[in-house]
């Protein structure tokens, strides 16, 4: 291993968010901020396009030969979707959480169909009720037809190993970066298939069979029987099943 390359790296996709929370990140992590806003973070400036998907793919493209052993990808304010992020980062820094391949961050696992009609269309932040084109997106990104349904953790945040990233060449991520900036609603499409980008099944051993939605923390408005608390350390230690694309 090249000693110049970090063991742990946190990649933050910022727009205008306050990044004071980075002061609590364990010192074991190298922190890389990409800034698509006013540049006040002092991070690496990028054009404001493609949301966090474009940011992640920029890092995956430009750092393909100098990746950390494990990279955690998050948004500028990651806690709405991953309220236990600090706990997870501490566990990674202390070695009590091991990730073999790919690991979704967050507490809500859900399922959407290839047109986004189950989740995206009725979403409160989609007032015009646009549909996704995941079938066309999947074909363009992976050169293969996609599934009828996509299971994923809401929020588009995850941790992934260098080896999993290198399952695909830098040119794949370069083309994906272009797709993130140009394909209709591409960031929402990527959110649903990040594990597939790294040839991993991020839901293996996590989503209960036959259950389209799972909460990994108690939700007050739900019946306790609908929640599915888990032990992330035990999950992350299990090798994921490879996907065909």
Structure overview:
- It is a single chain.
- This protein has 8 helices and 9 strands.
- The protein is an alpha/beta fold and 245 residues long.
- It has a domain of 157 residues: Alpha-Beta Complex (Spore Coat Polysaccharide Biosynthesis Protein SpsA, Chain A), CATH 3.90.550.
- The strands form 2 sheets. A 6-stranded mixed sheet has the order 3-2-1-4-8-5.
- Helix 1 packs antiparallel against helix 5.
- The longest helix has 13 residues.
- The protein starts with 7 loop residues before the first strand and ends in a 9-residue tail after the last helix.
Q: What is the topology?
A:
Blueprint lengths: L7 E7 L14 E7 L8 E2 L5 H12 L7 E6 L9 H10 L7 E3 L3 E6 L20 H9 L6 E5 L4 E4 H4 L4 H13 L3 H6 L2 H4 L16 E2 L16 H5 L9
Parallel strand pairs: 1-2, 1-4, 2-3
Antiparallel strand pairs: 4-8, 5-8, 6-7, 6-9
Helix pairs in contact: 1-5
What are its keywords?
3-stranded antiparallel β-sheet; disordered C terminus; alpha/beta; Spore Coat Polysaccharide Biosynthesis Protein SpsA, Chain A; 245 residues; 6-stranded mixed β-sheet
SSE-based structural type: alpha/beta
Reading off the top of the CATH hierarchy, the class of the domain at 8-108 and 154-203 and 229-234 is best stated as: Alpha Beta
- Contiguous low-pLDDT stretches (5 residues minimum) are 224-244
Query: Order of SSEs, N→C?
Result: EEEHEHEEHEEHHHHEH
């Amino acid at each position: 291993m090249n000693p110049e390359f970090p063991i742990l790296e946190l990649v933050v996709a910022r727009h205008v968010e306050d990044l004071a929370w980075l002061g609590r990140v364990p010192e074991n992590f190298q922190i890389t901020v990409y800034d698509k806003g006013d540049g006040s973070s002092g991070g690496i400036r990028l054009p404001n396009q493609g949301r966090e998907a474009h940011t992640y793919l920029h890092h995956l493209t430009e750092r393909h030969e100098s990746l950390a052993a494990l990279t955690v990808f998050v948004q500028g304010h990651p806690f709405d979707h991953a309220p236990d992020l600090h706990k997870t980062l501490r566990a990674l820094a202390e070695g009590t959480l091991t990730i073999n391949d790919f690991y979704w961050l967050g507490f809500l696992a859900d399922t959407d169909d290839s047109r986004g009609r189950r989740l995206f269309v009725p979403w409160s932040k989609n007032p015009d009720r646009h549909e996704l084109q995941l079938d066309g997106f999947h074909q363009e990104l992976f050169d293969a037809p996609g599934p009828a349904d996509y299971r994923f953790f809401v929020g588009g945040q995850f941790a992934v190993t260098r080896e999993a990233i290198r399952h695909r060449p830098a040119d794949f991520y370069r083309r994906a970066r272009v797709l993130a900036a140009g394909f209709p609603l591409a960031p929402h499409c990527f959110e649903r298939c990040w594990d597939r980008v790294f040839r991993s099944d991020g839901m293996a051993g996590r989503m209960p069979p036959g259950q389209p939605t799972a909460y990994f923390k108690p939700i007050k408005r739900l019946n306790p029987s609908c929640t599915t608390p888990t032990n992330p350390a035990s999950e992350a230690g299990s090798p994921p099943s490879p996907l065909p694309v």
